[in-house]
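Structure request: Regulatory protein RecX, Agrobacterium pusense.
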Amino acid sequence: MSDDSNLFLTDDMEFDGKAPAVEPTSRMLSWARNSALYRLEQRMMTEKQLRDAIMRKAREKFEDIGAAQIKALGDFAVRFAYEIKALDDTAFAEITVRSGQRSGKSKRGLAQKLQLKGIDRETAAVALQETDDLVAAINFARKRAFGPYRRVELDEKRKAKEFSAFARNGFGFEIGSKVMSMTTEEAEDILSEAPL
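Returned structure:
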C-alpha cells in the first residue's frame, strides 16, 4: 500500500520536512489581525511596537513557525492597522511629547523616548518643536517639590540634590538654576501661559 499522506498536507505544513514555509497560513493571518486589534484597543502604539509585539507573540503561539512567516505576520498586522487608521506615529509622537512636558520630561528625554519607541527622527523633531524645557522643568520641580515648590529650608546638600535631579532628567544647569531661583508666583505664571 502506498503512502498518500502527502496529498493531505495543509498550507501550514512543510512538504519535505526541510524547507520552512514562507507564507503564513490563513489561521495565522486571522490571529495577527485579531491580536493587532486587541493591542490597539488597549493602548496607542507605534508601528515598531506593534510589529515587535506581533512577531514576539507569533513565536510563542505557533510551533515550528519560520522566520519568514514571523516577519510576514508583523508586516501584515502593521498594514492592517494602517488600513483601519488605528496606527499613526505622528499622533503618537505629538501626544507623547505633550504628556511628557506636562509631567516634567525634558526635550532630550522625550527625544530619547520617541527613538526607543521607533519614531523616526523627522517625526520626532516636528513633535518636539513646540516643547519648552523651562515649562517642563517647572512641572518637574512641582512634582518633586524642588525650587519654588520646596517645603524645607535650602542647604548645600539639598541644593546639590536638586541640581543632580535636574541634570539626570536632561535639564541643563541654566534651566535648573532659573527654576530653583523662581518664586512660586513666577513659576505658576509661566505654567499658566504655557499651551496645554
